Amino acid sequence: MLLIRFLIITVCVLWLIRTLARIFLPMLFQSMVNKATQQHNQPYQQQPPRQAEGKVKVDFVPPGPKNTIPDNEGDFVDYEEVK
């Protein structure tokens, strides 16, 4: 008797979840699509100011390496290609 009661309750709960999902999931997805469409159609809020053509502004120059060849690589020997 306990097994039959458990099965009936389980079937009812699963049916209820399925019915609610059929009702609410399309509304949820539609609201997500509407929100994404609104964000896509809005112009960008903060655009950087346009600079005059031909002018270059450098904000940050990373420090360059002082030694381009690591110590563990050994010595580098210049050579000329012979043809």
From TrEMBL:
Q: Where is this region: Disordered?
A: 38-83
One Pfam entry name: DUF4834
Biased composition, class Acidic residues, residue ranges: 72-83
Mark out the compositionally biased spans (Low complexity). 38-51
Q: What is this protein called?
A: DUF4834 family protein
